[in-house]
Amino acid sequence: MKKGYxxxxxxxxxxxxxxxxxxxxxxxxxxxxxxxxxxxEWARLxxxxxxxxxxxxxxxxxxxxxxxSLFRILMVAGxxxxxxxxxxxxMPTGFIMSVxxxxxxxxGNIIDSAIYGMIFSASPYHGGLAEVVPWGTGYASLLxxxxxxxxxxxxxxxxxxNGDTFTFFSPIFNVADAAxxxxxxxxxxxxxxxxxxxxxxxxxxTPAAAEVSTxxxxxxxxxxxxxxxxxxxADTGKS
Length: 239
Description:
Layout: H1 3-28, E1 34-37, E2 40-50, H2 64-88, H3 93-119, E3 147-152, E4 156-159, E5 165-168, E6 172-173, H4 175-200, H5 222-238
Antiparallel strand pairs: 1-2, 2-3, 3-6, 4-5
Helix pairs in contact: 1-3, 2-3, 3-4
């Protein structure tokens, strides 16, 4: 399979998983609703929505949401163009796939921001489920939707000396966030491996011209001509 098809398939699979989990959570969980994953206290599905970046971060500004949505669209367009360039330049497959994961994650969150406000009713904070509604009658306008998050892994909580608590790992995230993080970490951790394999797979270069032995066609020097003349005269005398 060509690299372009491989990347497209990866992006499609990540998008399908991301949107399927978000649609399920949005329509079956009440806001802040929670269930344990395999009965584990440290692994939960916990439904929240955020208006900003990955892991619940936000831009606290009047036009922050619109700016973030437009930035995501431009970033994805740039990533797609970059992937095309990487494929044309025959860059390592692992590196291209890592960029593909980042692209898929950005696309997944763009879909939330772009259309979820248009097709879903709001998730009430005090009980009740969101519903799918006719296009344009949802809780927000185009590009102003909220991103659905659901994975929560509070592995351990410490009591601090000042009476507060600290929980590791506290961010709530989604499949798209996980894809972006995985892609970035893969590039940072394995970049030397990616490009070492790429260098080793290239054909060996031809020997330098200086290392190639001279042939019989090499022009004779002045000394060689004189020696040849002496040999000719000796042969003539013998004959």
